[in-house]
Amino acid sequence: MSKKIVLPLDDDDVLERRINETAKQQGIPSLTPAPVVPPGQAEPRRPIKVEVSDMLFQALTVAAAQQRVTKRFLILSALRNAGYPVDAEDFLEDGRRVRGSRKT
Amino acid sequence: MPVITLASVKGGVGKTSALLSLASDFALSNNSVTVLDADPNGHAGRIGAKMAKRLDGASFTAIGGITEANILSGIKAARAAAEYVFVDLPGVSSKLTLLGLARSDLVIVPVQASEMDIHDALQTVENVRQAGEAADKVIMTCFLLSRWPVTIESRAAKETRKRLTAKAPDVPVLQTPLMDRTAFKEMTFNGAPPRLVEPGGNAAANIAAIRREVQALLGAGMEDAQ
What we know:
The complex is a heterodimer.
Chain A: H1 12-26, H2 54-67, H3 71-81
Chain B: E1 3-6, H1 15-28, E2 33-37, H2 43-54, E3 60-63, H3 71-81, E4 84-88, H4 95-102, E5 106-111, H5 115-135, E6 140-145, H6 155-167, H7 182-190, H8 194-197, H9 202-225
Parallel strand pairs in B: 1-4, 1-5, 2-3, 2-4, 5-6
Helix pairs in contact in B: 1-2, 1-9, 4-5
């Protein structure tokens, strides 16, 4: 836990900052929805293509099928778990249907 | 001017009913009262507006639309304007909840006779502690037994009292429960508090007894702070 700074207590800004810190540490959510960034104003995105071994490709295919997610999702999850800055929006599907969601 | 907050991280515990009953009783006892509704459901603001019309002559104001962005300034303004400020917080643990708790002088946690209510009441007390730590103060907290059986105290009710005392010995349980009475339910339809509908009735006596306990707690709290 970070060291607390002693500041004037009647200051709403100070209290808000401390509450923000407490909420973040305790995983307490905000009820204010995050602002939606219009598509035109979103950060620029760039494609990346990686060649992998047949064995890794198959392993990803099987895991994606079992979890009903895309390979892209698995790769981004692994990158996020490794500490890379992957935002929640990066996981959004590109419009294709989720596996297995087609009505029979 | 004291800020009295009704809080529970569990919804449906009778938080808003208790708040409106109590706030109106303070107003009818010649105190100026402001109700701040920070619950996104907006019930206290909506019913409080009806109540303000019913309480014509008493100083009672209900303000809705309190959010993370304006709760601190809203409480500050209400404190300057009224003798008692009542805050209705969301029935969930949130940043808004912590902000409201941090500016409270007394937090009342309603608890119904159920294990789920006890569990979440204890979580609420933990949120009060966290908010107090952020505000560098100890926030007075008490439990209010809510929608309590009128005729006979059930086994579940007795067990609830017992567990609250055992698990949170530092948090007092108000002696007077908020009884499960029709008058409190009707109040949510017409905005008329029990003391207005039937001044000598059981519901009016019930809420008056709770008000006196709350005033005694606030008095003791103010003395401790000096």
